[in-house]
Amino acid sequence: MKELTSSELILRTKTLVTQERRITLALIEHLAEISRRMLYAELGYSSLWDFATRELGLSEGAAQRRIQAMRLVRDVPEAAAALESGSLSLSNAAKVQSFRQAEKKMGRKPDPRELVTQVANLSQRECEKTLFEISPEALPRESDRILSATEVHELKIVISSKLHEKLQLLKGFLAHSNPDASYGELLEYLATEALLRLEKQKGIQTRMPSTPATAAAAVKNPPKIIPPGRRGYLPVTLRKQVWAKSDGRCEFTVDGRRCSSRYRLEVDHIKSLAISGSNEVTNLRVLCWHHNQQQALEKLGRRRDSFKKPAAESL
Ligand SMILES: [Zn+2]
Question: What spacing in Å lies between the alpha carbon of 122 and ligand 1's midpoint?
């Protein structure tokens, strides 16, 4: 390289940048196909991001940007050309996609094509500013960092004034037992209440850290009888057994690698009831949403068009 003239060096570097953008776009297209086939799930990963970080060795941020850009390209095919030409950077594409997701949560649907045009050729900071001007609430910054060795977290969140009002109201109600509760204490109360209610509803134990009322005390639902005609319905005792067996984590295992995700867990019939599988514990397992979908997809021979949500019980 030392033999190159300065202009040759610059020219070669520019060519490499162009090639890098092309390769990034090709990588995004490959990720899209892996996602479509749910190959990551077949290989035992709990999500495309999990696959990208652990199998491909991408850093967490790099994986997140590529996956977000992939989703944007899926919805706005023109974004691919913008990424290739360099008018849309990978990080800005990811920002636009995150912005759209935040807007969607608030019931709004900004035109993605327009957004791509608006952030063309902008720096990261300019892009953030532009999106902030369109919708300040859509760029809430959340952070969660461990503060000490005893795992005290600092949680920074942005909330609406309505939620703030609700928290103040709750604070007032709780004041007789806990005068002037901190936000941390309010969250502790809300999380415990919600988890206890979920445990009761679903007949499971979430293994939450010790709380005032034990999880077991809340689970007093008598086992339900399977109503005729509802083949997928599982009695609470059976669900508890399956849950205990799985340790509350996805049981999908391939090449000795277990998924172990806790994301949207469902009880799955290993041999489906339609082909005379039973409701025995040995025929039941816990799968995360991705693996439940992937398994159903596999059974259907990847005919995505005719794909229907499998008859599983959510946990
Ligand atoms: Zn899984």
Answer: 39
